[in-house]
Sequence to fold (378 residues):
Amino acid sequence: MTALALTINGRAYGPTEVRDDLTMNDFLREFLGLTGTKFGCGAAQCLSCAVIVDNPDGTSVTNPTCIIPAVGFNGKVIRTVEGHAKDGELTALQKSFIGHFAFQCGYCTPGFLNEGQVLLERLARKPVARADLEKTIGEALDGHLCRCTGYIKYHEAVRDVILADPKRYLI
Amino acid sequence: MKSGWRFPILASVAALIGILIGASTAYAAAATPAGTLAAPESFSSIADPDKRSAALFTELGKVLTHPRCMNCHPAGDRPRQGDQRRLHQPPVARGADGQGLESMRCSSCHQGANFDPGRMPGNPIWHLAPREMGWEGKTLGEICAQMKDPARNGGRPVADLVSHIGSDALVGWAWAPGAGRQPAPGTQKQAGALVDAWVKTGAVCPQ
Fold:
């Protein structure tokens, strides 16, 4: 057993003792009831389980949770799909996902949403040229699998948010 | 009558076995069981220093061409994984620093240690070998020449390869890869001893 303390969606959790072999996915879903983070392949190959990790330097990355021990997140600040909307107001990306009907079964949506949000924040820090935008979105979403094959709609939904605010995201 | 021709046959078989034993003494490595490495001393019967050096590297080749090493020395930008050497899933690329793209870093999944419940290998400095150190698809002789070339070995003098293979922490992971993955043959110490002996005999490459 190891002590685990972390911040999830702005709220501090722990310290609490957890088993060393407990995955972060089980911790979120079974211990905290945050079931928005999905369990898909169990091998970090579909990334439906990905959450956002906010680094101390202001950057963010996505992390799968199904193959990483919960204690590996000790001291970290993370966001899950439950943490995007504020005061009941969906983010621009969430609205765009709905507008494009970017999901069908929805199982992969939390992972895509987190990845898209990380991309938006990265582009806000480091804008790219319009000519590089399609490749940039493609690379960002590349690791995520959608069994309903909604890739184009996800891509378009992310792109629309970026093109709606070009001064923020594009050179 | 039958016993009359049995004798010459038995004698011939015995002579053949003797020849084979004699030959295999010189190339002890060839008889080394799978998953093990021959000790450098077992090559001492090879009189020609160049041939002995090349034989030492050939033995080391069991490690270099093992999936634990080859998977992260790919020919392209995408590593392979598992004992079957399948392309890495999810699809990842080396990125500018060999540690992944901005959207997916190696350390996102590969943490400081193996996590067997998730079948995830880990090491604090997990990363791909630089592109110029790609071994995939090359013969052992080509890999050897590459390892001796400072332009393609990270600027190392050949002598530095002893510590790189013999004591580097990430290289050492190959012998403790976690559940479901076959470790590299022998031990890291034995591999380092082979490199040391290879360097001391002139670092000759096999053909």
